[in-house]
């Protein structure tokens, strides 16, 4: 794939939408493209995460293990999906396992690259902070709505 294709893909990722083409180019140039075959596990729940992945093609089954040992289906991820966005900023553990349901490609964005973007372009840091904060607030609101189930 060409660098221009990666830039177009990054522009579709909600966290990166609104970034200039130059900033997306810098990120695409420093990122690493990987081929994944059907059945291959991209990452496992509970492992340390040092990067995020943008799905370029193919699809991934996302699942996690509940406390009782049952497997919980966390959905699927297809092209344009960013997996493990917080890992690009901070040390975290993977919250689910991602396994390819077909052959495809992902683009790996490591923490050092993303932090460089945030340091060199403070306006990007402000924008990313706002989007992550909104995502966390939505998650907290959703969890608050379930509080009656645990009373």
UniProtKB/TrEMBL annotation:
<dbReference type="Pfam" id="PF00027">
    <property type="entry name" value="cNMP_binding"/>
</dbReference>
<feature type="domain" description="Cyclic nucleotide-binding">
    <location>
        <begin position="15"/>
        <end position="118"/>
    </location>
</feature>
<protein>
    <recommendedName>
        <fullName>Cyclic nucleotide-binding domain-containing protein</fullName>
    </recommendedName>
</protein>
<dbReference type="InterPro" id="IPR014710">
    <property type="entry name" value="RmlC-like_jellyroll"/>
</dbReference>
<dbReference type="InterPro" id="IPR050397">
    <property type="entry name" value="Env_Response_Regulators"/>
</dbReference>
<dbReference type="GO" id="GO:0005829">
    <property type="term" value="C:cytosol"/>
</dbReference>
<dbReference type="InterPro" id="IPR018490">
    <property type="entry name" value="cNMP-bd_dom_sf"/>
</dbReference>
<dbReference type="GO" id="GO:0003700">
    <property type="term" value="F:DNA-binding transcription factor activity"/>
</dbReference>
<dbReference type="InterPro" id="IPR000595">
    <property type="entry name" value="cNMP-bd_dom"/>
</dbReference>
């Amino acid at each position: 794939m060409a660098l221009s294709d990666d830039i177009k893909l990054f522009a579709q990722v909600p966290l990166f939408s609104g970034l200039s083409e130059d900033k997306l180019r810098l990120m695409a140039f420093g990122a690493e493209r990987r081929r994944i075959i059907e059945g291959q596990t991209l990452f496992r729940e509970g492992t340390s995460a040092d990067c995020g992945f943008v799905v370029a093609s193919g699809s991934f089954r996302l699942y996690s293990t509940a406390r009782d040992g049952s497997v919980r289906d966390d959905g699927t991820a297809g092209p344009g999906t960013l997996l493990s966005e917080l890992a690009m900023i901070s040390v975290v553990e993977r919250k689910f396992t991602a396994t390819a349901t077909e052959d495809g490609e992902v683009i790996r964005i490591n923490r050092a690259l993303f932090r460089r973007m945030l340091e060199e372009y403070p306006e990007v840091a402000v924008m990313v902070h706002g989007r992550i904060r909104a995502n966390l607030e939505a998650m907290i609101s959703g969890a608050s709505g379930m509080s009656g189930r645990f009373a």
